[in-house]
Amino acid sequence: MLGVYVSVPFCRAKCSFCNFASGVGTGAAMEQYVEQLCAEIDAAAVTAERLGTELPRRVDSVYFGGGTPSLLEPEQLRRVFDALRRRFEIEDSAEITLEAAPGQIGDRVLAEAQRLGVNRVSLGVQSFVDRESASVGRLHTERECVAEIVRLRAAGLAEVGADLIAGLPYQTEASWVHSLEVATGVGLTHLSVYMLEIDEDSRLGQEVLAGGKRFHAHGVPEEEMAAELYEQACEWLPKAGFAQYEISNFAAAEHRSKHNVKYWQRVPYIGFGLDAHSMLPAASGAMRFANPDELARYAGAESEREATPVGLHEAFEETIFLGLRMSEGVPIAGLREAFPRELVASCEEAARGLVAEGLMTDDDGHWRLTLRGRLVSNDVFGRLLEGIAA
Predict the structure, then answer these.
(1) How many Cβ atoms from other residues are within 10 Å of residue 186's Cβ?
(2) Percent residues over pLDDT 70 in the chain
(3) Which end of the chain, N or C, is more open, meaning fewer C-beta atoms within 10 Å of its C-beta?
(4) Which of 165, 168, 166, 164 is nearest to 219 (CA)?
């Protein structure tokens, strides 16, 4: 079945660490965007045909991301759902997720979202420590976060998750433990833990790279400390009932994000909205395509979309680096059944070296990353795949 991603790229304030295609939008801009979004959904079958892909009709996961999609008005959210249901058959048991910022999902929006089928909310908490939250432009406090989680669970949502970031300004080992303790004791069912990204795509990243002090850049801990905090979470959270099932994600088995697992298992999905990505089946195997990451260009996106075939080599590479993100790892026998022998053989020597270095394991017929390997996963993937012929 198909997974559907819907991008709503508007926020009340843009966090200094954010490197997504999102920003503050007016009511008029959001209304225009919803119209464009619904039009794109209605045209999905035509677009898929033009790009030479197949569009499955049955859907078992829908994910509203952003941005802060909980800022949509109830009527706007309803129009998007109406468009989705015109185009697709959404299973009664589908996982339907709405991202939200604590304190930014009103009673009317929550009630309408649940009526429309939303059964999972993912909160952008990032930290339960007020000083850390404020330093990057978050608009909530620890008390407001806890109250929001309690409110959502009391409203009947069985699945409420949150994001945490290791490496925020002024973060210490003690403050990180505090965030972990609150997160695991307040009724959440899912946690995502990321390390702060330092790059030129965010205001905070630019300032850190420039050695400046704006955006509290001087308070950002060293990269080594952020890695230590991530390791601490990987060791601490399973003991609290949150098993690690992917590099950045933790939950008991029955509370995993079914939608995100599609990405790592290379199951077909389609994205609508700004900077949304898709992978659909095609005669050649699969096709990938993406929408523009600028609002002005998104309005005329239909003429810009071009599909890229996922060839044999690309499919093999994706199977390796996406599969290794999962704690289950990559089944070696499955690789040998699905791909030519020479492709698998090109990785095996590198895998033996990575196992010897303690970055991977080779147990029970699976390649898996170790904790050290997760910290340098991009390097591991590069070494595994460098022997594949172009």
Answers:
(1) 19
(2) 98
(3) C
(4) 168
